[in-house]
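Model: You mentioned two targets. I'll fold them one after the other.
Researcher: Yes, keep them separate.
Model: Target one:
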Amino acid sequence: MDVNLVPARDNEPGLPSHPRMHGDRLQELDVNILFVIGGDGSQRGAIDIEKEARRRGAKLAVVGVPKTIDNDMIYMDKSFGYETAAAEAVEAVHAAHTEARSARGGIGLVKLMGRHSGFIACAATIASGEVNAVLIPEVPFALEGPHGFLEVIRQRVVTRGHAVVITAEGAGQEHLGSSGETDASGNLRLGDIGHFLKEKLTAHFKNCGTALTLKYIDPSYMIRSVPAMPQDRIYCMRLGQAAVHAGMAGKTGLIVARWHQVYVHVPISVATSARRTVDPRQDIWLSVLESTGQPPRYY
């Protein structure tokens, strides 16, 4: 499989007019071990590079290191970055709780990362103990009606004076519709569920004549930019060491991971064959429901 990723500029002196491929450049630089650090998209790219290296007979080992704060890669206990992201998300929840309690009819609405998997939202909910409703991609919800999300939150504010809501970025896409557009990595562009819920809550409270002071917090870039926590640093170092050992041993087409507390080699094709998601029937989601007191579903 050819990897046509870096076309040369047509009229630049000294450059060939045909597309130059990444594989060419790796060979020009005499690279014999390529470490691919990233999540599902990055590792799928690693598969293509590894296949092309095999086709050419190039002496190139391709080794993946899992790094995605969404924690959505399979056959591993967790991915590097998740612990730090979840811990920093808790700080955003604390801020939302303070704002919500400090205003009449207060709602603190926090949008957290999680395109397809709601692990960060669930972890922040359980760790903080301050969240009253969580929306994740794995659990569809109704907006309208007496048992819909909007009215349940309004009733919470009426009876308790405030509410804290977390939504994962991929939640509720069924209400937003899809543009069909993709980003540079080929991922489908998501609708902005945070602003959507803000507008819907504001309109619903107004129609019902209920006082509302809504504070919307999107800490995504703050979470992405913080230094890694010690546990993530240790994990990253161990993954790095395992990756170097694999590459130096001539292994290729694999991703290093920790599975059941043991560091293992997983074929990249296997690690990217499916996505880990929150199972609404398992204990993590049941723990979320017990922590928030929200209904099992909004209908």
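Model: Target two:
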Amino acid sequence: MLISGFVALDLEKGVYPPALYPMLKEMDYRIDVDYREAAEKKEAFFEDLFYTLDKRREAILHLLKKEEWDLFFATFTGTDRLHHYFWHELVDSKGPYHSKFLEYYRALDKIIKKIVSSAGKEVNLIIVADHGFTLIEKNSTQYLA
């Protein structure tokens, strides 16, 4: 079974086998959070971020319990979106979205704990990231070619 990530533009076309699609549609599964206007609509971004995480949790736990599997991958893209648009909020503990940033990680931690308990003690769990994050500092000095 496969549920594509953010490169899929349409959930129906990004699912294999196709019989998996109706279940995901029924649960209102989201491929990705809508981040296009994250800077302008911060509250809407966070609402969508948490909603999308909850739907990812629902799908993962369903598939872990109901399907037969030998190898199971789960990807949480929300952390990438959160970092790209709100990393400065993590760094600034007085920032208006600092607590939301931390709340997201607490929610993700709870999901990982549930995945571990659902998968069973004999399962090996590996957690990886595709890249790190830091603040981007811009230098005002212009370089001429």
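Researcher: Noted. Anything on target two?
Model: Residues 29 and 55 are 5 Å apart (CA to CA).
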